[in-house]
Amino acid sequence: xxxxxxxxxxxxxxxxxxxxxxxxxxxxxxxxxxxxxxxxxxxxxxxxxxxxxxxxxxxxxxxxxxxxxxxxxxxxxxxxxxxxxxxxxxxxxxxxxxxxxxxxxxxxxxxxxxxxxxxxxxxxxxxxxxxxxxxxxxxxxxxxxxxxxxxxxxxxxxxxxxxxxxxxxxxxxxxxxxxxxxxxxxxxxxxxxxxxxxxxxxxxxxxxxxxxxxxxxxxxxxxxxxxxxxxxxxxxxxxxxxxxxxxxxxxxxxxxxxxxxxxxxxxxxxxxxxxxxxxxxxxxxxxxxxxxxxxxxxxxxxxxxxxxxxxxxxxxxxxxxxxxxxxxxxx
Length: 331
Ligand SMILES: NC(=O)c1ccc[n+]([C@@H]2O[C@H](COP(=O)([O-])OP(=O)(O)OC[C@H]3O[C@@H](n4cnc5c(N)ncnc54)[C@H](OP(=O)(O)O)[C@@H]3O)[C@@H](O)[C@H]2O)c1
Known about the structure:
α3 (139-152) crosses α4. This protein starts with a strand and ends with a strand. Helices cover 28% and strands 26% of the residues. By secondary structure, the chain is α/β, with parallel strands linked by helices. The strands form 4 sheets. Strands 3, 4, 5, 8, 9, 16 and 17 form a 7-stranded mixed beta sheet that branches. A 6-stranded parallel beta sheet has the order 12-11-10-13-14-15, with helices on both faces. α10 links the parallel β16 (302-307) and β17. It has 10 helices and 17 strands. The chain has 2 domains: 2-138 and 300-330, Medium-chain alcohol dehydrogenases, catalytic domain (Quinone Oxidoreductase, Chain A, domain 1); 143-277, Rossmann fold, CATH 3.40.50. It binds NADP nicotinamide-adenine-dinucleotide phosphate (NAP). The site of NADP nicotinamide-adenine-dinucleotide phosphate (NAP) has 34 residues, from α1, α3 and α4.
């Protein structure tokens, strides 16, 4: 089968023929129709990720058709159009993942290939209203944002929600989830154009975080924020305490712009702010997200689609923060 193989740090992907995966008990073989990039793939190409191994086929997100199953009881899955939940071995505790938790696309080979093997319990019916490309967009980023907004921040439609760096893949899902929840949503971005795109999708407004005094502008515009979903962190994180309302929740799962800056402890305890870390999500979160997508007929935002052969160009686009939404690979 054809695959994009990463053979080392800071190297280009090599498009080549590799053996098709061989199934063992409880596994199914999915013929991939579309895959999606996550920042994780970019971190791995740069060597900035734990547990690196080479050669590796990256890719956590994929949609396709089940071609083969190992166990007879999974025969009904053959021919089904599916999306893949990239997380395995979450463990028994809903609150956090076990030490055996794994994400598809390192250490196991992932979706940037014609075929991938996964556990039968990790495939879910593709929403009927979505194309394969749209369905490939949501698993990892959508799940992480879904858990952040619903399971962790416990957002309701009464909340005013801020999405930081709205152009990012997971940020655009946080935007879609919060809008469909019926909350008032504000965004930050480095790009005025991306803010306008978010407003067209239903955000109430936004500010450009590269401009001076963006935090006081945001406070005036929004009247105060209850829930913040931030996957960038960096120095901007310290500003949250000037516009967050008492009882506010800040959920984060990434640190694209760097680590936490010094924070004003008094503002945090006096306003009774919760700062909450999260990562990916349980199979229950994944199922709830699918129900939310299906019942609201939500369509993921696709930035651009590349062929597998052009994977290096796709990674470069992510690296330059040019995207608004998910970067897709088609096979
Ligand atoms: N723990 C987990 O389970 C988990 C899951 C998913 C993602 N993540 C992490 O979350 C982060 C985002 O992932 P992704 O796949 O959504 O990435 P992505 O699509 O590459 O998102 C990048 C976006 O981050 C925003 N950004 C960059 N610098 C910023 C800054 N200084 N202030 C505010 N926003 C900034 C930009 O938004 P604008 O273009 O609008 O400025 C950019 O488009 C990554 O660090 C990733 O590793 C973690």
